Amino acid sequence: MDQEHRMLDARILQGQGYTQAQIAEMLHVTDRTVRNYLKGMPRQRKRPVRGSKVDPYKPLIDEVLEKNPFYNSEVLYERLVRRGFTGKKSILKDYVASVRRKLLNQAVMRFETEPGLQAQVDWKEFGRQIVDGRETKLYAFVMVLGYSRKAFVYFTTSMETAVLLDCHLMAFQYFGGVPSEILYDNMKTAFYCDAEGTWRPAKRLSVVAAHYGFTPRRCQVRRPETKGKVERAIGYLDNNFWPRLEGQSLSLAELNSRVREWLSNIDGKPLAEFNESRQQRFLREQPALKALSVVPCDVREEIPVAVNRESMIRYQTNSYTVPPEHIGELLTLKVSPLAGEAEIFGRQGSIRSFALCPAGAKQHVVFAEDREAMRLRWEKDRRSTARRRTPAKRRERPAVEVQVRSPSEYESFVESLRAEVCA
Q1: Residue 35 domain-assigned?
Q2: Whole-angstrom Cα distance, residue 387 to residue 249?
Q3: pLDDT in tens, 16-55
Q4: Enclosing domain of residue 59
Q5: Is 390 inside a domain boundary?
Q6: Is pTM beyond 0.90 here?
Q7: Are residues 120 and 183 in contact, defined by beta-carbon separation less than 8 angstroms?
């Protein structure tokens, strides 16, 4: 485990109430190292990557073993050889043993979870739909609390990392707290596979987890029992809520308002397996959730933008003015995609916050506070350009007297020169 992930894991464990000594024992490091982890900011530490002949085939091996952990290694070796594997059996068997051990030791979480212990997250894709008058891909972010089955749903037109994390913050506000751990499906924005074949939480997700004190976990691929609660919620959303919108053209805001009403309605209906409603069970679960952080985590997407000669930056085909003293500089644009807002930062900090125009609108937004400053800058540049283009006055040269002589004088001069040469 690299230093950056150890630091984030240490912060998560600290948020869960573990002492420094307990954290040191769990991470297999010294107490002093844990203190340094908790004091310092995560820093990326480069480490050499040692390749192996089995590396290109790890995804296939993982897929086979996840379906059947006891798949015969000899048969698997023959399959890989036919695909071009040139390594020895021992390398393959060592890797198979490590994966098999991990799968067998990784207990499937029991069907019922304690209040406040776990939430499950997944996306539901609705394909291309007409939203806000234009055709776009539509998705629904779904988070379900494991004990009460209370769900949070938010429709978006993107599944990018900033949207995923922003949906987390809205879900925490909706529930009024944070579960101890969150279980994720096989989504690339949440987990990645490192060079050693180990799945780790994405850095930005780890930062959010450390800030709010939850542990991100990845469910086993093709093991539906590990994420059944969120899958059932998604199925209910697809079969009960979505058909009610058939033939309607809604805005994204209307869509999220309607789904919020639908969630409120189903929360009062009894669950067949418990003879209790989600709301009744949530009343017992809500006090077990972790308290929300007073200071929200900044999950906005950071985008470098250059200021052109017209004192404007460009984002998603739209242009926005900035104070002209920043012409030629590289600034940072922090975007909240769900709120449709952005904030521009320079060397001295925040310059301004503003609402974003729709993507692809090709709008030019000139802020009133920039208009006069841009006019003064334009006049100054025009005067400077005019001075450079005006030629300096030519100096008066003294008059030169020119004597005009007859051609015969030149002929006599040439004859005299010839006579001297012959002499």
Answers
A1: yes
A2: 60
A3: 788 888 888 888 888 888 888 787 655 555 556 567 888 8
A4: 52-106
A5: no
A6: no
A7: yes
